[in-house]
Amino acid sequence: KYSDLYDFAPVGYFSISDRGLILDANLMGATMLGMERGKLTGSRFSQFIAKDDQDVFYLYRQKLFETKTKQVCELKLKKGDGTEFYAQLESFAVKDEAGKYSTIRTSLSDITERKQTALTLMTAKQEIESIVKTVPDIIYRLDPQGRLTFVSDSVKRYGYLPEELLGTNVMKMVYPEDKIKTIH
Asked: Most buried by CB count within 10 Å: which residue of 25, 39, 63, 75?
């Protein structure tokens, strides 16, 4: 039962020495790195980390052994064939028989889809902000109570700063004779 749970888990599991060597990996971990499980043992885990994230992993390992508490980080990893993916590592240091913290136990999850979605959202947000900044009309957003939660910079033409209007009920800004038209 435990072998099935370990080997066929939906995440990769790794035991990594204090020197960064892979001591053990489950089948999913080997699959995620695109390597045969037997070839992983004794390999440096850092060889599967993208160049830009090498320091992140080094500092992560240091913090694990210093704090002896669970740590989480995100890294860009590369498979045996060179393709890259984003991963989240959740790790903790464990003691050996002598009572020394000498091994890291890590679960590895592929977060590539989440990272790509975040990048797509960030790009869309930047595009919308660019449009809002260039449109001469006032663009605003209201909460269900009619309070302004966003006002574009175009409002400056009328002597207001967007931040001073936030939280204001929009009806306070409507001319009394236009209030009935605005409500309908």
From this structure: 25
Predicted TM-score (pTM) of this structure: 0.73
Closest CA to 107 of 71, 57, 134, 155: 71
* Token output for 1: 């039962």
CA 173 to chain centre: 41
Q: Across the beta sheet with 12-17, what order do the strands follow?
A: 22-25, 12-17, 101-110, 84-95, 71-78
**How far apart (Å, rounded) are the C-alpha atoms in residues 50 and 44?**
13
The 10s digit of each residue's pLDDT in 28-64 is: 999 999 999 999 999 999 999 999 999 999 999 999 9
Question: Could you tell me if 142 and 167 are in contact, meaning their C-beta atoms sit under 8 angstroms apart?
Answer: no
Which secondary structure element, helix H or strand E, spans residue 23, and what is its range? strand 22-25
Asked if residues 169 and 180 have their Cβ atoms less than 8 Å apart, the reply is no
Strands 101-110 and 140-142: unpaired
Cβ-based neighbour number of residue 79 at 10 Å:
14
